[in-house]
Amino acid sequence: MKRLLGVALAAQVLAGCAANGPPKSPGSASVANYPIKPSTPIAPAIVQKPVLVAPGTTALSNGVVSGPAVASLKIDKVAASRALKAFQLSCPALLRRSDYSGLTTNADWTAVCAAATTWDGAQAVRFFTDNFETVQVGAGTSYATGYYEPEIAGSRTPAPGYPVPIYSRPPDEVDVDLGLFSDRLVGKKITGRVVGTGLVPYFTRSEIEDGALAGKGLELAYAADPVEFFFLQIQGSGRLKLPDGTTMQIAYGGQNGRDYTGIGELMHQRGLVVPGQLSMQGIMTYLRAHPDEGRAIMRENKSWVFFREISGDGPIGALGIAVTGQGSVAADPAFVPLGAPVFLSMDRADATGLWIAQDTGGAIKGANRFDTFWGAGDQARVIAGGMSARGTAFIMLPKGVLARLLMGSATGGGTTP
């Protein structure tokens, strides 16, 4: 009953906002029309015995142990076919990309990527069973949220009702690879701008909204709704529904280097939303109902995302390829080799299963933290907006890698036998 009442109240709030506000995208209405998808809690299918490890900055330093046999995971055939296609797309990156997790080398993926080209979707379960083994990083305790490809109202040019500039990456933004200066900082970077002879932090969300980049020719497009655009930035890519009915596809083009702050947790700490409202839908409803306070809350997240226009399949993940709805997850590359399969054994059936780590996220940090991708459309928005799953994660590595890692532990490596 509370859930139905919450949906009804959200619908009234959004209807009131739409009456006098800017044009709303189809996605705005879906906040009211589509409640969070109910999900019956389940017991995680597989839970490894917790192990005591010292927290580390990479998967290797955090310690890894052998996980369950892939054949015991009961991988869904449809999910396996989807994952195989995603893995095949990931292979070129796996063969050339540095693995900051410390778990694999490029050579570890050579044979399995070559084998992947000879398998089709009908044999996908056997492909993963024959070619992979699982490892658990640390205690394996996992938390998964969800993201999707939003579609919001926008315009390529300035127009009444489209007040929110969408910026491309500024040319004065500088990325510094700290690993070039110290081996202890490999995989870490900072972003800023040069002032005089020094590097200073780049503009915050507040400074950008107040016009720090205005008039510099960086306006890629304009959004109708600041709340919708805020969440599009969190998703990292999306589509703009233009006034003529066409769409413009935009993808992640950079970030201002400021730390990401999850406003949901802030709002919860301040008693603004209760646990049942800690979803994208519940947060958006509050922000719309309290526009001045909502604007100030959003500004507490100093992170700002820049965009670029793309065409073709999308959105584009951290590997430079399109991510797959219900098949891709974002992960922290310090703890998961990007491109590797991951099996999540969670307390939600829709999050449980086989995924491919093809993306990263500003809030996706640490061991066994994942963000599941659900594609585009209202249903994807509903699932992603309410996704919160807990359980155990198992990274799938080419067979033979674990033996090498365990051998390294005998000489001072970070693995746990």
From TrEMBL:
A GO BP entry: cell wall organization
EC numbers, comma separated: 4.2.2.n1
Presence of keyword Signal: yes
Record-level GO cellular component terms: outer membrane
Keywords per UniProt: Cell wall biogenesis/degradation, Lyase, Signal
Coiled coil start-end: none
Domain of life: Bacteria
Catalysis performed (reactions): Exolytic cleavage of the (1->4)-beta-glycosidic linkage between N-acetylmuramic acid (MurNAc) and N-acetylglucosamine (GlcNAc) residues in peptidoglycan, from either the reducing or the non-reducing ends of the peptidoglycan chains, with concomitant formation of a 1,6-anhydrobond in the MurNAc residue
InterPro entries for this protein: 3D_dom, MltA, MltA_B, RlpA-like_sf
Signal peptide residues on this chain, from the entry's feature table: 1-18
The UniProt record lists the keyword Cell wall biogenesis/degradation: yes
GO MF term (any one): hydrolase activity, hydrolyzing O-glycosyl compounds
Domain Lytic transglycosylase MltA stretches: 151-308
CDD domains: mlta_B, mltA_like_LT_A
Pfam families for the chain: 3D, MltA
UniProt name for this protein: peptidoglycan lytic exotransglycosylase
Protein species of origin: Sphingomonas paeninsulae
Species lineage: Bacteria, Pseudomonadati, Pseudomonadota, Alphaproteobacteria, Sphingomonadales
